[in-house]
Amino acid sequence: MANNEDVFKKIVSHAKEYGFIFPSSEIYDGLAAVYDYGQLGVELKNNIKQYWWKSMVQYHENIVGIDSAIFMHPKIWKASGHVDAFNDPLIDNKDSKKRYRADVLIEDHIAKIEDKIRKEVEKAAKRFENFDEAMFRSTNARVLEQQAKIDDITHRYSEAMNANDLEAVRQLILDLGIVCPISGTRNWTEVRQFNLMFATQMGSVADGADTIYLRPETAQGIFVNFLNVQKSGRMKIPFGIAQIGKAFRNEIVARQFIFRMREFEQMEMQFFVRPGEELKWFEYWKETRRKWHLALGISEKKYRFHDHEKLAHYANAATDIEFEFPFGFKELEGIHSRTNFDLSRHSEFSGKKLQYFDPELNESYTPYVIETSIGLDRTFLAIFSYAYHEETLEDGSQRVVLKIPTILAPYKAAVLPLVKKDGLPEKAQQIVDSLKYDYMVQYDEKDAIGRRYRRQDAIGTPFCITVDNQTLANGTVTVRERDTMQQERIPAENLNAYLHGKIQPLSH
Ligand code: GAP
Known about the structure:
The protein has helices at about 5-15, 40-60, 75-80, 80-85, 100-125, 135-160, 165-175, 220-225, 225-230, 280-295, 340-350, 375-385, 425-435, 450-460, 470-475, 495-500; strands spanning about 20-25, 35, 65, 85-90, 100, 190-195, 200, 210-215, 240-250, 265-275, 305, 315-325, 330-335, 355-360, 365, 370-375, 390, 400, 415, 440-445, 465, 475-480, 485-490. By secondary structure, it is of the alpha+beta class. The strands form seven sheets. It has a seven-stranded mixed sheet with strand order 3-9-10-16-13-12-11. A five-stranded mixed sheet has the order 20-19-21-22-23, sandwiched between helices. Strands 5-4-6 form a three-stranded antiparallel sheet. Helix 13 links the parallel strand 19 and strand 20. Helix 5 (about 100-125) packs antiparallel against helix 6, helix 5 packs parallel to helix 7 (about 165-175) and helix 6 packs antiparallel against helix 7 (about 165-175). It starts with a helix and ends in a 6-residue tail after the last helix. The structure holds glycyl-adenosine-5'-phosphate. The site of glycyl-adenosine-5'-phosphate has 19 residues, from strand 10, strand 13, strand 16 and helix 12. Glycyl-adenosine-5'-phosphate binds next to strand 10, strand 13, strand 16 and helix 12.
C-alpha cells in the first residue's frame, strides 16, 4: 500500500494534470511557494468561498461582509503589533547554507516522536488477543516515556520563546541532536527573528515614498472599518464583519504545496461583543465552526482542536482546528478571543475613538472580539486530499475519483453523447443549453464512454448524463452517479429538477 508521502505526491500531480493547481510562473521554472489555480481549481475555490460566505453572512442576520484594500496605512501594522512582533525564529545550517524555521525543526522532531508512539500503539493493537499484563506495562512505559519527552520539549520551547531567549532555542535544537536534512550536520548558526511582512514603496519617487506592507492578514481591514460598518449598517452588538481576501507572508519554510504559501487567501470574521461576554462567544464560535467543517461530510476523526497554551499578545483564549492532511494533523483554522486589543490600539494610534454606545446598558465601551480565521487554500487542500480516492473496480480495473461534496464540485454534470453521429451530439448540446444557466456543465464527445466516465470521476463531476438512441426515441437519458456508479434512466426534461434535488446547499 502506498504510504502517505506517496499519496500526497499523487494528489499534487493530480491537481496539476487535471487543471486544478499549477506552480506559478512555471515556464520560468516557478516561484517558490506561489501557485496558480487552473480552470477547475478556480471553480472549486469559488464554491468553497461561497459556502463560507453564505454560512457566515447570509445565514447570520447580524453578520455583514466587506472587501477592504490590500494596501493600508503603514501605521496600522505598527498598531497591530506586526511591525515589531510578526516574526519567525530562523536558523541557518553553515554547511548546506540552508535556512530553517527553528520552531519547524522542533515541530518535525516532535512529529517523529509522535510517530513512534503511534507505531507502538498499533503494534499493541495487533497483538491484542494475546496481550498479557507484562506486555501492557512495558508498552505503557514506552509510550509514557516518549510522551514525557514531547512535554519537556514543548515546555522548553515555550519558555524560551516567552522570554525571547533565542540562544535557549538554539540550545534546544543542539540538545535534541537535530541535523540539517541536506547536509546531515549540526553546524547551526545563532537563531534570529525575521519579519514576515512584504514591504514595498508607495509613490513614484523612492526618496519621498512611504514604506507600506502587503497585508499579512485580512483582519486589520475589518478593525479599521469597525465604526464605518457599525454606523452605516446600524449594527447592534453582538455583530460580526466578514471578509475574504488575499494575504501575504514571506514564509521561510514554504513547503507542503498550498499548505504554506507566500500569497494566499483568508476567510476571516470578527465578532464584536460586550466586554466580559467574550468567552461565552468564543465557545459558541468553536462549536459553530466545528459544525461547518462536519457539514462537508468529512469524517469527524479528521479534525481535532488544539487549544493554545502560549497565547498571542492580543488573545485571552485561542484554539486551532487542526485537520489530518496527508502529512499529519496541521492547523486549518484559528479561533481567537482577541480582547479589545486591536480596537484600543487603533484608537491610540489614529487618535479616533473606536467605541460603541450600548443602548441597553446606556454606556460606551470598546467591544471585545472573537475572530474566526480560516485559510481558503488550506480548506481547498483539506477537501481535495480527502476527496482523492484510488479504487479497484469489480472487473479489476482502476479508477481515480474525487469525491468532492456535490455542491462544491467544479462541474455538476457532464453531458455525453454515446457516439459522435446519428444526431446524438446535437441532442446532447441541447441538453447542455437547457442546464447551463443553472449549473456548470461540461460537454464531452471524445473517446469511448468508459474513458469519459473515468475523466469525469477524476475531476469530481457528480453526474454523467448519457445521450443515446433511446433519447431520440423516447426523450430519456441515463444519469450515472459518480460515487456509486449506479445508473438510472430519467426523462431529459426532468434533468433540471433532478439536479436541483440532488445538489443541496450544505447546512449546519
Ligand atoms: N487574523 C488571524 C490570523 O491571520 P493565522 O493563524 O496567522 O491567524 C489564519 O492565520 C489562517 O490562515 C490559518 O489557520 C491558515 O489556515 C491560514 N494561513 C496562514 N498562513 C498561511 C500560509 N502561509 N499559507 C496558507 N494559508 C495560511
